[in-house]
Amino acid sequence: QVQLVESGGGLVQAAGSLRLSCAASGRSVSRYAMGWVRQAPGKEREFVAAISRSGSSTTYADSVKGRFTISRDNAKNTVYLEMNSLKPEDTAVYYCAAAFSFVVDTRKWDYWGQGTQVTVSS
User: Fold this and answer.
1) For a tag site, which of 38, 74, 95, 121 has the least CB within 10 Å?
2) Mind giving me the DSSP string for 76-121?
């Protein structure tokens, strides 16, 4: 199994930036495709971004495309989510996840972190 711990969340003003990190332990993160999802209060979990094992392929939700960038450093066993031009509607708990397959369907993701809160004030 792989254990995932997110960090980097916090309070930021609209139009600001944050960088989330997801540190993996237990197994090399290079074995997995990785992704981020978010869940706002009273809303369903929402796919945000995913990256393939090598990092050569990425995919994003339309709501974050052009503003967020997912990346990974397999040598550091870490995945990142760079978030720019943040909006109040980006406020949510952000979760990192690992998957055996590079898929957008988060129901098929296998391991999850505990989440980190991101709050964007207007």
Assistant:
1) 121
2) GTEEEEEE-S--GGG-EEEEEEEESS--S-GGG--EE---EEEEEE
Q: Kindly give the confidence (pLDDT) of every residue in the chain, 122 residues in length, as a single tens digit, with 9 standing for 90 and above.
A: 899 999 999 999 999 999 999 999 998 889 999 999 999 999 999 999 999 999 999 999 999 999 999 999 999 999 999 999 999 999 999 999 999 988 888 888 999 999 999 999 99
Sign of CA dihedral 4, 5, 8, 10: positive
CA separation, residue 105 to residues 48, 49, 62, 73, 84 (Å): 11, 11, 15, 23, 24
As given in the structure block, the two tokens for residue 61 are: 């939700």
* CB-CB contact of 64 with 92 (8 Å): no
Between β-strands 46-51 and 33-39, what pairing exists: parallel, antiparallel or unpaired?
Answer: antiparallel
Cα gap 87→12, rounded to integer Å: 9
What is the sign, positive or negative, of the torsion defined by CA atoms of 92, 119, 16, 19?
negative
